[in-house]
Amino acid sequence: MDPTPYEIERKFLLEAPDLAALDGAATSRSEIEQIYLDDRGAGAERVRRRVRLDAAGPRTELTHTRKVAVSAGVAEEYEVDVDETTYADLLARADPARVPVLKTRWVVPHGDLVLEVDRIREPRELWLLEVELADPGGLHARLDLPTWVGPHVEVTGDGRYANRSLALPD
Fold this sequence. Notes:
Number of helices: 3
CATH superfamily: Hypothetical Protein Pfu-838710-001
CATH architecture: Beta Barrel
Structural class: mainly beta
Number of domains: 1
CATH class: Mainly Beta
Number of strands: 9
Helix content: 10-25%
Order of helices and strands: EHEEEEHEEEEH
Largest sheet: 8 strands, antiparallel, barrel
Distance between the termini: 43 Å
Shape: globular
């Protein structure tokens, strides 16, 4: 039996990073559209269309993801790649109370960590940084972020900054 797949991450609200430094440090940049599904459960279910540009060139990735919060910064995450037909079928279940989240994501290696910097454009302008961790011990460890990140506030576990919450129109 496979172990439960956990996503362990810390999240930070940014004022606005140094874009030139961010572009220089990033190994990829993606345009992402996330649409939340009407899952009628306690978790979050979404589909994502991601157009990634990196050294391998541009490519489109379609995924279906279910997340269930376990604790602040920890969620069970089940994610699979899907084809266009499955993606379209899942879109039929789009949650009418939520709008698509449109964002640009930069992926930046930082020591042993990977930083994901999101510039959310819709439904409102916002900068977030997520740091994926290998184990829950990192949730409380000192974390030195690069200076190009600029002023930031940790929002790990603050439901207002979950993408599912951000998909609620103002």
